[in-house]
Amino acid sequence: AFEGLTERLQKAMRNLRGKGKVSESDLRKTMREIRLALLEADVNFSVVRKFVKTVQERAKGADVLEGLNPAQQIVKIVDEELTKTMGEEATPLNKSEKIPTVIMMAGLQGAGKTTTAGKLSLKLKNEKDARPLLIAADIYRPAAIDQLEQVGKEIDVPVFQKGTDVDPIEIVKQGMQVAKENHNDYVLIDTAGRLQIDEKLMDELKNIKELTHPDEILLVVDAMTGQNAVNTAEGFNDALDITGVVLTKLDGDTRGGAALSIREVTQKPIKFIGQGEKMDALDVFHPDRMASRILGMGDILSLIEKTQKDYDEKEAQKLTEKMQNNTFGFEDFLDQLNQIQKMGPLEDIMKMIPGMANNPALKNINMDPKDLEHIKAIIYSMTKEEKDNPDLLNPSRRRRIARGCGRPIQEVNRMIKQFNQMKTMMNKMSKGNMSGMENMLGN
Ligand code: GDP
Ligand code: MG
Question: What ipTM describes this predicted complex?
Answer without folding.
Answer: 0.99
